[in-house]
Amino acid sequence: MSSLHRPVDLPTWPGVIERYRSFLPVTPRTPVITLLEGNTPLLESARLGPRMGLRLLFKLESVNPSGSFKDRGMTVAVSKALEAGSRAVICASTGNTAASAAAYAARAGLPCLIVLPAAGVAAGKLAQAFAHGALVVTVDGGFDTALAVTREVSARLELALVNSVNPHRIAGQKTAAFEICDVLGAAPDLVVLPVGNAGNITAYWRGFVEYQAAGLITAPPRMVGVQAAGAAPLVDGRPVERPQTVASAICIGNPASWQGAVAAVGESRGRFIKVSDDAILAAQERLAAEEGILVEPASAAALAGLQELAMAEPPRGRTVVCVLTGHGLKDPGALPGAAAPPPPVAPTGEAVSRAVLSLLG
Ligand code: F0G
């Protein structure tokens, strides 16, 4: 008997809280709010890595349920907010935290308040937040101002703050480092990731340190934090008053987890790098055209940083993980192909064949 549908034994993924429960601040009484985040692909580079003479792996955080790495931290933060009896969650955001908080709050049945900077939130992220029913306030200022005021409001109104200044966010996000080690059977030599408010680099470093302490890896990787040239406080060593970059997700002048980022880079003997907006957009285009991976500009900054590093001190033969933090569809306005389709031709085999042949050149 033949059957079209042959059931296969696919392992089921329980989400990051169940998978890494013993490393996380949860108890049997914590209600687990999950969208089955995590377990994201560690995809070998087809072209860009070999060209640089290294084994390059992309950690595709863009395929998390809301399209960014924020979901790892949000599952923990929202679960803990529910456990604590909070009546709502609140966050400031350049967009991805907002989208993720809105999704997990919807799942938990909690109201979600979002405080946005006046300019620079990408259309896709805004659409996500509204779709999940978030309540949105915009403030006249950038992300740093929005976060400062949100911290005050969360204390004043006793709302659960789910920005990465909440330690539960960092705890959840460190699971990405665990996954990388679990897949490779060791830590990579280098981890390169974009840095904005600096929660994520802090979280990765904590993950590697905890895995080493648990005897699961022998040595942690070097951490490379990449910032946009117009918003590079950690590279320049001082806050930036008016940050500016095409990578709106990391347009941040005074990162809340400054110390955590400095510790990650210092203790791992890594470094901070800044890259121009042109380099970011070129890296975004290369990832799309040569690897088949569509990311938003902030994520492409990681690759731009690696390419700059590779030119100065080629890390040949090394295993490098480049963290691709957010999906390209979130910020369609930043895509190189945002152009309109060509004018229509006659719907005949002959006309379309002529058009196809002229495109093939
Ligand atoms: N990449 C993307 C796509 C982001 O959205 C962010 C931060 C980062 C990188 C930097 O991570 O802040 O932990 O250093 N987005 C925040 C937000 C600020 O509000 O969505 P970080």
The distinct ligands, each listed once, are: ligand F0G
Oligomer class: single chain
Q: Tell me, what's the shape?
A: globular
Q: Enumerate the strands of the largest sheet in spatial order, edge to edge or round the barrel.
A: 1-2-10-7-8-9
Give the terminus-to-terminus CA distance.
50 Å
**Main pleated-sheet profile:** 6 strands, mixed
CATH class of the largest domain: Alpha Beta
Give the SSE order as H and E letters. Answer: HEHEHEHEHEHEHHEHEHHEHHEH
What is the number of helical segments per DSSP (H or I, 4+ residues)?
Answer: 14
Number of domains in the coordinates? 2
What is the average of the pLDDT values?
Answer: 96
Q: Give the low-confidence spans.
A: none
The radius of gyration over CA amounts to: 21 Å
* Total number of strands: 10
Please state roughly what percent of the residues sit in beta strands, choosing from under 5%, 5-15%, 15-25%, 25-35%, 35-45% or over 45%.
5-15%
Helix-residue proportion:
40-55%
Short description:
The chain is of the alpha/beta class and 361 residues long. It has 14 helices and ten strands. Strand 3, helix 4 and strand 4 form a beta-alpha-beta unit.
Plain-language structure description:
The chain is an alpha/beta fold and 361 residues long. It folds into two domains: 16-68 and 169-334, Rossmann fold; 70-166, Rossmann fold (3-Layer(aba) Sandwich). The chain is 41% helix and 14% strand. It has 14 helices and ten strands. The protein has a six-stranded mixed β-sheet with strand order 1-2-10-7-8-9, with helices on both faces. Strands 5-4-3-6 form a four-stranded parallel β-sheet. Strand 3, helix 4 and strand 4 form a beta-alpha-beta unit. The longest helix is centred in the last third of the chain and has 16 residues, at 297-312. The chain starts with 15 loop residues before the first helix and ends with a helix. The structure holds ligand F0G. Ligand F0G is lined by residues 68, 93-97, 164, 194-200, 249-250, 296, 298-299, 325-326.
